Amino acid sequence: MSLDAFISQIEKNKAALVARLAEAVAIPSVSGDAKYRKHVFEMADWMKAQLEKLGATASFQPLGKQMLNGEEIDLPPVIFADLRAKTDADKKKTILVYGHFDVQPALKSDGWDTEPFELVHDEKTGRLYGRGSTDDKGPILGWLNVIEAHQQIGLDLPVNLKFCFEGMEESGSVGLDECIYKNKDGFFQGVDACCISDNYWLGTKKPCITHGLRGVTYFKLHISGPGADLHSGLFGGVVHEPMTDLFQIMSRLVTPQGEILVPGIKELVAPLTDEERKRYEVMEFTIKDMDDATGSSTTISDEKESVLMARMRYPSLSLHGIEGAFSAPGTKTVIPAKVVGKFSIRLVPNMTPKAVSDLVVDYVNKEWAKIGSKNKMVIEGDPDGGKPWYADPNHWNYAAATKATEKIYGVKPDLTREGGSIPVALTFSEVTGKNLLLLPLGRADDGAHSAPEKLDLDNYLRGTQLLGVYLHEVAASKA
Ligand SMILES: C[C@H](N)C(=O)N[C@@H](Cc1c[nH]cn1)C(=O)O
Ligand SMILES: [Zn+2]
Ligand SMILES: [Zn+2]
C-alpha cells in the first residue's frame, strides 16, 4: 500500500521533478574544459545543498589540483553524504550510491536543435533534451526524487543511504580512487551493497540491469616538425608533413572491421565459454535495436551475438580526433606544424591499462621507426586508465533490482554488460568488499556524449520509481 503511495507521489511530482532537472542542466558543469571549471564547483554546491535540504549530512572532500592544458587548476570536490532511516536505522541495510554531476562538452553547433544547457521538454515525443539529462544528472536526481517523495507521504526510508558524487567522471575521475581508499575505514564502512545508475538500456524498449563494464585507456600521439604552419604550395612535397605521418600511424592501429592491429592485445582477452555465449543468445535484442541506437545501419556484423559481444566482452579501439588539424569550413591550404592524434582502447577482463598501454607505446614506436620521417613523435600512454569491472549477478542486490523492474515495467530485465566505463566501479567493489549493481534509467538512443542528448520523461519518472522500489526490495531481501 505505502509503496503504491510512493509510486503515485512520483507521478504527482512530475512538474517539480522536471524543474529540478532543468535547474541542474542549466549549470554547464563540463569537467574537461578549464573555462567551465567554475561551473563544476557551482554544480557541487547545488548538489550538496539539495542533499542537505533533504536531511542528509553532506561534506566536500577536497581533491587538490590538476594540470589541464598547461594550467594548474583546482579539482572539484567529491560529495560524501549520509542519510539514515528515521526508524530502526541500525537494523536496516545501507546502500552506497555513486553518480557524477559533471558532463561532456556541448556546443549548439555540434548538432543540437536547442540550447544544450537549457532543458527542453518536447511535449510531442515526451523527450527532455539537455546535456547531462541522461548522463548523469537525470539518474542522480532520481535518487533525490525518491527521498523527497518518501518524506512527502510520511514513509520512512527502507534502507540507510550513503552517497558519493563526483565532478570529474567525464575526465578520468582524477583523484577519486585515492579519496575513496583514504576513507575506506571511515565513510565506506558499514555498506551492504552498492548501486550506480550511469549507463543505458540495450535498446529503447526493454530495461536492463548491468553486471559488467569495460575499462578504458587513452592515448595522445604528438607529431611535430616545421617551426610554424606552412603554405602547402611553397612547402608541400618539400618537408615531412606531421599530418601525413599521423594518418600513417593511426591507420596502423585498427582496421575498418574493428580488428585491433596492436600485437599482443587479443591474447589478453579472457576466453569465451559456452555458458557465456548462451547468455548473448537469450538476450532479447535485434540488429534493429542497435540501428535505432546509432541512427544508422552500420553495424560491422549482422549477427546479433557478435554485435552484443563487440559491445560487452571484446576490446575496441576508437579514433577520436586530431588537435591542430584544420577543421573550419573553406579550403585553407595549410600544412599544420604540430598535430595530436587521440585514440582510446576499451578494455575487458583480463586486460589492464598498464599492459595495454605498454603494448601500444612499444608498437607505435616500432611503426614510427618504419616510416622514416624526420619529424618528432611522442606517444603518451595511460597506464593508470580505468580497469574493467565484472560482478556476480547471483546476489540479493540483483534479485532486488530484478523484482523492482518487474514491478515498474512488468518485464524481467535483460542482464547486460556495458560497453562504457565507470572506472570507480571496481574501486567501490574492492573498498567495500560488497556487491555492486548498475541500474540504468536511460535508453540506448539517449545520445549520451553526443548531440542532442535526451532522457525520455517516462524513463525519468519510471526510473525514479524503479530506484525507490529497488530500495524497498533490498530491505525485503534476506542478505
Ligand atoms: C558509462 C558512463 N556513463 C560514461 O560515459 N563513462 C565514460 C567515462 C570516461 C572515460 N574517459 C572519459 N570519460 C566513458 O565510458 O567514456
Ligand atoms: Zn556517466
Ligand atoms: Zn559519460
Automatic annotation (TrEMBL):
Gene3D superfamilies: 3.30.70.360, Zn peptidases. One of its GO terms (molecular function) is metallodipeptidase activity. Its cofactor is Mn(2+). Mn(2+) 1 binds at D135, E170, H449. Keywords: Hydrolase, Manganese, Metal-binding, Metalloprotease, Protease. Residues 212-369 form the Peptidase M20 dimerisation domain. The active site is at D102, E169. It holds the Pfam family M20_dimer. It comes from the Eukaryota. SUPFAM superfamilies: Zn-dependent exopeptidases. Mn(2+) 2 binds at H100, D135, D198. Binds 2 manganese ions per subunit. The keyword Transport does not apply. Substrate binds at D198, H231, T333, R346, S421, H449. The record marks H231 as: Important for catalytic activity. GO terms for biological process: proteolysis. Belongs to the peptidase M20A family. This is CNDP dipeptidase. It comes from Acaromyces ingoldii. The lineage of its organism: Eukaryota, Fungi, Dikarya, Basidiomycota, Ustilaginomycotina.
